[in-house]
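Most newcomers find our protein records easier to grasp once they have seen one. A learned vocabulary of local backbone shapes supplies the integers on the structure line. Here is such a record, shown just as it appears in the course material:
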Amino acid sequence: MSTPQSSEGFTPTGTIAASVDRRRVVFATIVGTTVEWYDFFIYATAVGLVFGQLFFAPLGADSALIAFATVGVSFLFRPLGAFLAGHFGDKYGRKLVLMWTLILMGTATALIGVLPTYEAIGIAAPILLVLLRILQGISAGGEWGGAVLMAVEHAPKSRRGAFGASPQIGVPLGLLLASGVMALMTVIAPGDQFLQWGWRVPFLLSVVLILVGYYVRRRVEESPVFAELAERKEKARMPIVQLFRKHALLVLIAALVFAGNNAVGYMTTGGYIQGYSTNPEGPLGLERGPVLWAVTGSAVTWLLSTLAAGFISDRIGRRTTYIAGWILQLVGVFLLFPLVNTGNIWLLFLGLAILTIGLGFTYGPQAALYSELFPASIRFSGVSISYAIGAILGGAFAPTIATWLVQQTGSTTAVTWYLAGMTMLGLIATLLLRDRSGIPLGPDHEAEQSVSPIYGLSKA
């Protein structure tokens, strides 16, 4: 058994923890979150391409709106996953929670791949689809917090941003993998074959990915902060109660930071751009394949900017990196639809690529930022619940809202202003927080960690 590390990246004897262990943690975090988000995003991609026709079309003229709403339904159950994961993660460890969220997500995704359509079993088809999407939401709500803490709590103090970017890049990697596999299936199973069976293959591939992710995560040591808490028997008995009693306002502000990023990001991860640009009755009517490849390419730029932002935040601080990111994101928001609406696939890709630069800078530092906001004994609950609430306020119904705005106004201008407003909300929330880059994360420093990072407040 390896010697446990302290919360600042050192063993009890003061020597630096083995770099091979840290590399293993980073690798496991990337693989696990990539698999989780592949599963989550493959659903959103399929909504814009096939689910409206196969599961919801018989429900009426608003089938597209209903289909996109199911993307948001899962977000309503993310807080349940966050509450459960936060409670068990603060009491029994980060690693245990991560194993179960991976299994739950993979099982739900694989079952979608074998689900009969409306034509085969009627109204039971969309009902079962929504139930499986809810299970995905519960899993996603619990996954992120555990992955973040495994990465950041293993990191040296000066490299938390870089280590924390590892679970963050799982999102663009998951999108890249989901869009890439879907795009490949449009080639292997073109036209009607894609609707008949091609779309199912990416869901069934989840079984293989889950086995890989499970194997990798089993080999990772527990978070050193939790190991220290467990050894001292200082784990919180009711972490969620303590969180809301002492840090309710902080949870809300942290949630708004994420909401500003998530609403904009879900233009692609929620399947909206894919559905809008390929809708044969819409203004563009582009082919599925090229659009999916464009989204896949933009996932690469998102990945690179997310990774870069994590490293940069270690040098200039989380808050400054975020502020720069909000400015870049606002530029991307105003350029997105003018470029997409040209109907040129290369300009569509350019619009997405520019947008993802800002998205990366408002997402890459989030793991380190959140981890440094909350005390050690309730940290899992704090980061998970803030993230889940932010997802509801931001991305949950962003594709549905965008669809409704276009239906009501006949143009995408209103969508642009909606996304700009969410970006500004994220900026304001960021400005309310002090930069706590480098604050000690271990249980020895609970008093310092409990001092409110919100400007104007000095008590926990």
Observations:
- The chain is about 75% helix and 0% strand.
